[in-house]
Amino acid sequence: MNTHSKETQSSVAISKEGNNQDSLKNLNFTPKNVRTPLGIFVLASTFLLMFAGAFLVYELQPEFYQFNSDRINSNWGFAIFLVTAALFLFKGLFFLYNLYLYFRYRSIKSVSDELLPTCTVIVPAYNEGKQVWDTLMSLANSNYPEHKLQLIAIDDGSQDDTWHWMQEAKAKLGARVYIYKQPENKGKRHALYRGFKLCGTGDIFVTVDSDSVVEADTLRNLVSPFVTNENCGAVAGNVRVLNNQKSIIPKMLNVSFVMSFEFIRSVESALGSVLCTPGALAAYRKKAVFACLPEWINQTFMGQPSDIGEDRAMTNMILKQGYHVLFQRNAYVLTNVPERYKGLYKMFIRWARSNVRENINMAKFVFTKFREGSTAGTRLLFFNQWLKLIMAYPLIILMLAFVIMHPILFLTSTFFSILVVSSFPVLFYAKRYNIAESFWAYSYSILYTFGLFWITPYAIATANRRGWLTRGLTAKK
């Protein structure tokens, strides 16, 4: 997962939430549970729309019956019906398979201090201001043997006071942190590359975004799988939202991230094939990194240097070497996310373009014997990824046709579908964390359906474009 430069976040503390088994118990960053009038209005509107949709679906049954009859009785309509039924069946079976894998997943408990490997943490930063200080302090306060932990912070040519705060961190932490400044802004990939080449003392590389903070046990939990599994090449951390009380969008993303990480990546980890180690927090075996480092830094797409998707690219290249890529649910990191729609869609465009590029790259090796043991599960994950891309344009065309011909039926069925389909993320979050916050999954689904549906088709059409899109100066406070 890539993140962008965001507003400086001051230190706050996070309390234990709900009945979560891997609670965020040690973080000293906790937002107050504030219910704003706007938030109440959004949630109330969400439920009004969904229940109104459910009611109208019931009331308009004759119209729906006539619509379905007309569709099935036409050649095109019947063909669409068959494709839709096949997709529905596949998605249903795939979901049940995911449930099975989720219940099989277990995070690895931390190994002893004696067994913990030496670890070099690399923090690339661009226009992060004081937030980089908070990041480095949270890492320095980790429950990790000090003689086995090395911190490297790299200022990627920032235009604000990021370098000043790195110097302040250096003054406080001394030899525990090394700071470097790029002569000019060259992008996150090049900043990480410099950190990798500096090599340091660690057998394990950990990358942490400079707008993120970790809890005390995060690092030791994150790297423990490398000790217990010699085939482990990379580990993804568990990403939550740091600024989730500052506006509506972070509240929604906080719930969405739990589904994306604690469910989806748990499933992928059960297959040893997490498809993307997030930029906010990831760990890599040094041997695996250096085996693909030249290819990674010189990666191109359609003749242009790749300046996005460095995390997904690294994950792909490590999977290709035959390593397992795992997820540690008990390795928490909190990261800042966009607070406005413009920043959100730009972040999603970047992620979607990276997804298009790396799915193409993954196609080059996923059907080979790239590692020992069964790879059927990995290939199924890959097929599901490609299905989303293949169906992007047909689905948007069908949606627009439905809107034009039957706008009332479209709206009512869509809101009712959101009520049904999004209830699983709601229940999942409520079980893991907090019932009241879980309802934001419904609001997020509405936002995505009506405000972000265009992202994937647009990203496919513009996959060759470069640019981070969201790297700007942090807001002054």
From TrEMBL:
Main location group: membrane
Compartments reported by the entry: Cell membrane
EC number: 2.4.-.-
Transmembrane annotation, as ranges: 38-58, 78-100, 386-404, 410-430, 442-461
Record-linked InterPro entries: Nucleotide-diphossugar_trans (IPR029044)
GO molecular function: glycosyltransferase activity
UniProt xrefs under Gene3D superfamilies: Spore Coat Polysaccharide Biosynthesis Protein SpsA, Chain A (3.90.550.10)
The keyword Repressor is annotated on this UniProt entry: no
Keywords, ordered alphabetically: Cell membrane, Glycosyltransferase, Membrane, Transferase, Transmembrane, Transmembrane helix
Alphabetical list of Pfam families matching this protein: Glyco_tranf_2_3 (PF13641)
Keyword Cell membrane annotated: yes
Listed PANTHER family: HYALURONAN SYNTHASE, MANNURONAN SYNTHASE
Name of the protein in question: Glycosyltransferase
